Amino acid sequence: MLIIRNKIADKKELKGLERDTLVLNWQDRRRSRQRVRTTKGVELGIALPTGTVMQEGDLLYMDERCYIVVEAEKEDVIVIYPEDMTQGALVAYEIGNRHHPISLSRERIITPYSRLMEEFLKRESIRYECRKEVFEPLRRGGHHG
């Protein structure tokens, strides 16, 4: 088993090396301690510094014949298209009230799929679609208390 203690910042020439990927969902990309397998079956022990978040394309390992890179898994999400700020605030409030993660952009709000969230959106006649895509939640957050 390979132990990964740091991401590799210097992405030297990768041309000609065999590529292997570590496919992780949004939650696992935030876990700094875990045991995983790459798509080619290589067992890795991830022991990154606390608080490290792995990103799509991060280089975790490299030697003279191969390298291992992080790939963000496409996940079931709800993509919401609020009509205005009021509707957007209502949706964000509901997502936060359910303690679900959220991703925001200018035109859309994204959260992992939840049947209850989908029912809320239908009930409120808010435009949305369910699909698979890479989910990257906001990194900021507070705690109750």
Describe the structure.
The protein has helices at 85-97, 115-123, and strands at 2-4, 18-24, 33-37, 43-47, 59-62, 66-72, 74-80, 103-104, 109-112, 128-134. With 145 residues, the chain is of the alpha+beta class. The strands form 3 sheets. It has a 4-stranded antiparallel β-sheet with strand order 8-9-7-10, covered by helices on one side. The chain has a 3-stranded mixed β-sheet with strand order 1-4-3, with no helix packed on it. Strand 3 and strand 4 form a beta hairpin. The longest helix is centred in the middle third of the chain and has 13 residues, at 85-97. The radius of gyration is 18 Å and the shape is elongated. The model has no long low-confidence stretch (mean pLDDT 94).
Keywords for this entry:
145 residues; alpha+beta; HSP40/DNAj peptide-binding domain; Alpha-Beta Plaits; 2 domains; 4-stranded antiparallel sheet; 3-stranded mixed sheet
The helix fraction, in percent, is: 10-25%
Number of extended strands: 10
How far apart lie the N and C ends?
Answer: 41 Å
CATH architecture of the largest domain: Sandwich
What is the element layout, followed by pairings?
Elements: E1 2-4, E2 18-24, E3 33-37, E4 43-47, E5 59-62, E6 66-72, E7 74-80, H1 85-97, E8 103-104, E9 109-112, H2 115-123, E10 128-134
